[in-house]
């Protein structure tokens, strides 16, 4: 036993936790109306693991002996279940394929180093054997960064950093913490909170992702408006390469040529194995509050978020959902009792009398942290802006509920797969001046793709993060494929996914705001950073890893690999 926590081999999260619609009476009618699926019909659960045909390990005796000498027998694992867990991330394509038993290339061995020296020994041994090394954190990646290339003939080693999970030290004067790269979000925050500190980074994958994974994919979190993205938070780091270690000190700023720190951020394992990082930390705030607001239209909500970004307010969260996502959120509510059951209908009646089209209304969550006086000042600024754009305050009750449930959303995708629907996400970022066209054209692209397939699909969106010059738009889509054949389902999925991603490029947005490139988004890399920019990236990767031993196949489009 390694003591490392893993997610389900077939889906998101841990065994025993799953999404259910039975306590949400409005959801089944909503899903039937939008995508024509009956939630009350019998579903198809994932297969038993024993029914999978797992390819045999190709680990040779020589490399096996070196790995066991370095780590100990207990931490070198060729068990079929462990190897399958480390084969895929948690993207839609990953889940369809693993449920179908589609396992063309499985890691031959999973290793669990306990410190950086052991990581160095593993890296050196694998590269000397001309093997392939794939770093593994929480396994929550959804862009194809963890899967071995199907045609890879060399031995494949999955390096699980789960034992490197400690906060090593805190520099209180600098507000910095040195943390091992394998620390999962909850474990990291528990250790920091016990000493009065927080990193404040809360991606949707928080419970099942690691510091190293956040750095390797340029992660963002729901509180990035205040704390910054991981590219702002991670200040120094250590990265193991064959025969050497990159050591970057946690400096507040530097002019030491092109930033090696920036090169490591988003490198997805192709520039080495991140073993630890110095990160910005903050004192646990005195107060934390998330308030719900309602805007009459999507345009009004976007305009308010833009004005808030330009104001003296500094909220931790700025989120607004479009009308489709708002309707979905309302369908997810559990039955209310007493006054709460009456409050919603009364409010909606009042708004209708004021001339609101409730089918266009957009729900927003804005978060605040700090001393009571600070919160009062922040809420006053935001309140005036919300009112200026026709919005109203719903209160902190819905905001608190959102805060409690924010990490549960990914479980819905497994539920959809069980009932025969495909659901996934694509997210992007663009300047404020481009957002409305980007939104409209992307929703249209998704709708056209559904029509092309002849399926009844649904797409929705929210603004998840605000910046000085623009914001992140996060799209979610779902549809029932017209086939039960997994390979054909994936083909239909790609019709929709490609339409959305191409819309990002056509509307001057990026291919990914925070899910990384992997293999899923690599096709559009040259459009995103230009062919010349791709030349620079390819040259960097080849100079560091000429043998393509470090997670080959990710980041670059296939025709740019050497």
Could you give a quick summary of the protein structure above?
The protein is α+β, with helices and mostly antiparallel strands. It is built from 20 helices and 18 strands.
Description:
With 562 residues, the chain is α+β, with helices and mostly antiparallel strands. The protein folds into three domains: 60-88 and 106-284 and 530-561, Uridine Diphospho-n-acetylenolpyruvylglucosamine Reductase, domain 3 (2-Layer Sandwich); 287-406, Vanillyl-alcohol Oxidase, Chain A, domain 3 (3-Layer(aba) Sandwich), CATH 3.40.462; 409-529, GMP Synthetase, Chain A, domain 3, CATH 3.30.300. The protein contains 20 helices and 18 strands. It has helices at 27-35, 61-71, 80-85, 92-99, 116-128, 185-193, 211-217, 224-227, 230-233, 260-264, 298-310, 323-331, 339-353, 372-388, 396-405, 411-419, 435-453, 486-506, 525-529, 531-544; strands at residues 76-77, 109-111, 132-136, 156-160, 167-171, 176-180, 197-198, 234-241, 244-248, 273-280, 282-283, 287-295, 317-321, 362-370, 392-395, 422-431, 458-466, 470-479. Helix 2 runs antiparallel to helix 5 and helix 17 packs antiparallel against helix 18 (486-506). The radius of gyration is 24 Å and the shape is globular. The two termini are 39 Å apart. The mean pLDDT is 95. Belongs to the FAD-binding oxidoreductase/transferase type 4 family. This is FAD-binding oxidoreductase. Its cofactor is FAD. Substrate binds at residue 413.
